[in-house]
Amino acid sequence: MIRIVISRYCDELKQVVFDVFGSQVSIDKQSIILSDETEVQKAKQALERVLSERRFEDYIVAENTEDPTELAILKKGDIEQLGLYLCSFCMMVFNSEVERNLHQRVHYFGFA
Ligand SMILES: [Zn+2]
Predict the structure, then answer these.
(1) What's the domain range around 61?
(2) How far is CA 2 from CA 49, 56, 80, 104, in A?
(3) Gap from CA of 53 to ligand 1 centroid (Å)
(4) How far is ligand 1, taken at its centre, from the CA of residue 26, in Å?
(5) Ligand 1 centroid from CA 33, angstroms
(6) 20 to 30 A from 81, CA-CA: which of 5, 42, 59, 94?
(7) At 8, is the pLDDT very low, low, confident or very high (cuts 50, 70, 90)?
(8) Do 99 and 53 have their domain in common?
(9) How many domains, the chain?
(10) Higher pLDDT residue, 106 or 11?
(11) Given a cut of 80, is residue 29 above it in pLDDT?
């Protein structure tokens, strides 16, 4: 089971998730449950693909580092308000600015 939390829950994003995962989807109060899905990476890639195809470029799919069964679809502008920090190069999400800045060095100095 994978839970997808959607920030600023809106019908368009809900529709995207339905289109990707079809009948496996059920809705909890603030999140969408994929009851038959177990591979978070696969689900994440499928969501990223459809978000970019439909020009939802303001949204990213983030993994929850504390709960491996949870994904979140976040609006880029909301991220810092949630206390999260986004790598401006690869869109990875971090819980602190320090972690994010350390990570970003990889992009400045190349993959050693
Ligand atoms: Zn990065």
Answers:
(1) 2-78
(2) 18, 22, 24, 29
(3) 22
(4) 32
(5) 28
(6) 42
(7) low
(8) no
(9) 2
(10) 106
(11) no
- Cα(62)–Cα(65) distance, integer angstroms: 9
Give residue 46's pLDDT: 93
How much distance in Å is there from the Cα of 36 to the middle of ligand 1?
A: 31
Cα-to-centroid distance, 88 and ligand 1 (Å): 7
| Contact by Cβ (8 Å): 19, 51 | no
Ligand 1 centre and the CA of 61: distance in Å? 14
Together in a domain, 93 and 62: no
Amino acid in the structure at residue 107? H
- Pair (70, 99) in one structural domain: no
Question: In angstroms, what is the span from residue 82 Cα to ligand 1's centroid?
Answer: 19
Query: Which tokens hold the place of 25?
Result: 């989807």
Strands 2-6 and 31-34: antiparallel
In this structure, of 28-32, 56-60, 66-70, 92-96, the range with the lowest mean pLDDT score is 28-32
Mind listing the pLDDT tens digit for each residue in 35-55?
A: 888 899 999 999 999 999 999
Residue 35 Cα, ligand 1 centroid: separation in angstroms? 31
